[in-house]
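Review form for a predicted model. The reviewer records the input and the model, then writes brief findings.
Reviewer: anonymous (R2)
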Amino acid sequence: MTLPTLHGRAAWVFTEDDYDIDLIVGIKNIKITDINELAAVTMTSYDPDFAQSVNKGDLLVGGQNFGYGHPHYPAMRAMRHLGVAGVIAESFSPGFFRGEISMGFPLITCPGIRAATQRWDTLQVDWERGVVVNQRTGQTLPFEPWSSTERATIEAGGFTPYLKARLARERAAAAAAAA
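Model under review:
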């Protein structure tokens, strides 16, 4: 398994610390279940054309404790539907971090990323070097590595596929040992 390629534009740079992700779709919209309807209202209070300007593979950049508040899923479901491939932030709210990693959505903790990034800069996560590269400025910033379980969860595409693969390996090992 390999980690997903994270190489895209910064579709948005959130300037606030403790950013409540419910604001991405608006509190009044968090109960919308139709993904197309939800995507259409994404970020409209910030940029009415946001949904039309996002490309597949784009990234979000955030500050300290990104995802603060209740870890509701509609906002990031909408972002994934629009093509956003991951979030790079100074730090994440623990509940939000666990929830999105379990969904197989990469969250990269990278101190200094907010100050080093402008909207539409192209960013690349270099997994081997452990850095985020801003291709406009050439600046590199180290990111915090994931635990082995977090990495395996992202490589598997989420916690459920990770558990299924792990259980299959354990059954195969037990069968081989019994043979």
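Findings: The longest strand covers residues 7-13.
Further findings: The chain has six helices and seven strands.
Recommendation: see findings above.
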